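Sequence design from tokenized structure. All designs in this work follow the same two-part layout: the structure record, then the generated sequence. An example of the structure record is given first.
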């Protein structure tokens, strides 16, 4: 038996770390958004703020975690990756709020084809015929999953807007995966430094929209109303804030030690587990179309 070399073990550990963190994030996020659908941006802001606090606390505990000093030049250079990150997170949150957990990966099924397209345009490289064939297969899987099904009750049929959120989320995730590679040099090739800039910058960018959307006043009204189950929102924010911090680091590490497209393979692999867990935890409805879609998307990615 041939043992895995240290680099292979490193990649396997990073991918597993990413998959576990991502699964926990999706299901706790879904539970909170089900209980408080009116507060998606505030929920996202709290996650980002908790991640910033955890990064700062980590730097105080361990010398290996270095938080960069604020520099205007660096901040300007990182505006593209931070902007794309927060836009992708917002559409991701809105999509998860409006669709079933088991359908979430189907709604974002175009992540891999869009990542291939964005990578090809950005790197000015032409994908191989095999890559194009696989991207086409994944796209077919997405179309199968979103096709109307008579076996679904009206309440379980995803809206056109929720699918639009999913496509936009996929597009900005693709941009983000590619921009990370070019942004790391501005952060001394440190994933921790990039995670700090990304979370802090994203929190600053989303705060005005939380205010403009009226979510702070809505939160106060729900809190003082006496009929809101605030515990799910508060504890869910804490849990997802912690795992959001872990997921941010895991995602950056995954892209750093592999590649944007290989990173998407990890996402596709966990989609099968996510679908099964969604059916089990939330009693989501699984149709032939949806099962076939997951199979086609995963198969095309592999």
């Amino acid at each position: 038996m041939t043992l895995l070399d240290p680099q292979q073990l490193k990649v396997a550990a990073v991918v597993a770390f990413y998959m576990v963190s991502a699964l926990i994030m999706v299901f706790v996020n879904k539970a909170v958004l089900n209980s408080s659908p009116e507060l998606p941006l505030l929920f996202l802001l709290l996650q980002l703020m908790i991640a910033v606090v955890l990064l700062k606390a980590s730097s105080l505990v361990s010398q290996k975690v270095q938080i960069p000093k604020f520099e205007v030049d660096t901040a300007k250079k990182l505006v593209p990756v931070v902007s794309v990150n927060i836009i992708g997170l917002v559409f991701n949150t809105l999509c998860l709020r409006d669709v079933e957990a088991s359908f979430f990966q189907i709604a974002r099924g175009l992540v891999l084809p869009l990542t291939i397209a964005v990578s090809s345009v950005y790197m000015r490289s032409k994908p191989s015929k095999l890559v194009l064939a696989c991207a086409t297969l994944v796209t077919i899987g997405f179309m199968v999953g979103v096709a109307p099904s008579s076996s679904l009750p009206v309440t379980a049929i995803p809206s056109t807007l929720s699918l639009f959120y999913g496509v936009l989320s996929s597009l900005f995730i693709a941009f983000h995966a590619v921009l990370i590679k070019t942004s790391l040099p501005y952060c001394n090739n440190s994933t921790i430094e990039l995670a700090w800039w990304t979370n802090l910058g994203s929190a600053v960018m989303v705060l005005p929209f939380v205010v403009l959307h009226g979510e702070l006043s809505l939160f106060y009204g729900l809190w003082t109303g006496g009929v809101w189950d605030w515990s799910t929102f508060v504890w869910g924010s804490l849990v997802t804030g912690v795992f959001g911090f872990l997921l941010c680091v895991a995602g950056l590490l995954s892209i750093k030690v592999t590649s944007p497209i290989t990173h998407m393979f990890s996402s596709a692999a966990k989609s099968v587990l996510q679908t099964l867990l969604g059916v089990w935890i939330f009693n989501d409805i699984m149709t032939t179309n949806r099962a076939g879609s997951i199979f086609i998307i995963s198969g095309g990615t592999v």
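The chain has a mean pLDDT of 83. We note this feature because it recurs in several other targets discussed in the main text.
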